[in-house]
């Protein structure tokens, strides 16, 4: 019997579209793609993991690595970059429905401290029974450590747990631990698959 529903944040509970964000600065498409590769590659993963404690630390590191793009990096990695996140109301409504039906709700997400502080303003955070976040754990999905932290901290049985995430690697990692992974491409499909699991 499923008792626990675990949600990712980016592209599941909140929109996260880095390419659209970069295009919003009016850069040529070639530059948008270059900046995407620089900003949202490995160093972004390190930022989510907490290796770069703040966006300022990330910006400093990247401008040192890529001085030719210092002006663009300074513009893109500014204090209000977190506004890239905005609520997916349809998923939030589904979470509220699941909570009302008696399921326990958790978050498992790769994100930086700034993202966490911004996203937690949304009402759905009041529904959750717990959460595990990469910047706190110094571990990112699909590393096993962060899944173990969720299961152990809240005494969750994997076979009683469903996990919704937009990344196939993260779903595969959950499946290896016995968690029921649902790949989130769109809410309708993910909801159908989740409801099938809930019915057993």
What does this structure look like?
The protein is α/β, with parallel strands linked by helices. It folds into two domains: 4-15 and 85-199, Rossmann fold; 18-82. It has helices spanning 18-23, 29-39, 42-49, 55-65, 70-76, 89-100, 113-119, 134-137, 144-153, 168-176, 187-199, and strands spanning 4-7, 14-15, 86-87, 104-109, 130-133, 161-165, 180-183. Helix 4 packs antiparallel against helix 5 (70-76). The longest helix has 13 residues, at 187-199.
Number of strand elements:
7
- Strand arrangement, largest sheet? 5-4-1-6-7
Beta-strand content estimate: 5-15%
Structural class: alpha/beta
The CATH superfamily of the largest domain bears the name: HAD superfamily/HAD-like
What is the count of structural domains? 2
Kindly state the mean pLDDT as a whole number? Answer: 97
Largest sheet entry: 5 strands, parallel
**What is the radius of gyration?**
18 Å
Number of DSSP helices? Answer: 11
Q: Helical content, roughly?
A: 40-55%
Distance between the termini: 7 Å
Provide key terms for this protein.
7 strands; 200 residues; two-stranded antiparallel ribbon; Rossmann fold; elongated; alpha/beta
């Amino acid at each position: 019997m499923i008792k626990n529903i675990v949600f990712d944040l980016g592209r599941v509970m909140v929109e996260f579209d880095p390419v659209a964000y970069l295009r919003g600065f009016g850069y040529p498409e070639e530059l948008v793609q270059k900046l995407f590769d620089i900003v949202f590659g490995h160093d972004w993963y390190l930022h989510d993991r907490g290796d770069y404690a703040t966006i300022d630390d990330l910006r400093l590191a990247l401008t040192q690595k890529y001085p030719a793009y210092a002006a663009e990096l300074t513009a893109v990695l500014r204090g209000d970059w977190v506004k890239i996140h905005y609520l997916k109301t349809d998923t939030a409504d589904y979470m509220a429905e699941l909570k009302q039906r008696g399921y326990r709700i958790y978050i498992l997400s790769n994100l930086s401290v700034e993202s966490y502080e911004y996203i937690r303003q949304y009402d759905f955070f009041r529904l959750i029974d717990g959460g595990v976040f990469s910047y706190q754990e110094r571990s990112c999905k699909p590393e096993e450590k962060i899944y173990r932290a969720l299961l152990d901290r809240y005494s969750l049985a994997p076979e009683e747990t469903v996990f919704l995430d937009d990344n196939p690697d993260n779903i595969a990692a959950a499946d290896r631990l016995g968690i029921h992974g649902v790949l989130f491409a769109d809410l309708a499909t993910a909801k159908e698959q989740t409801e099938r699991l809930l019915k057993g």
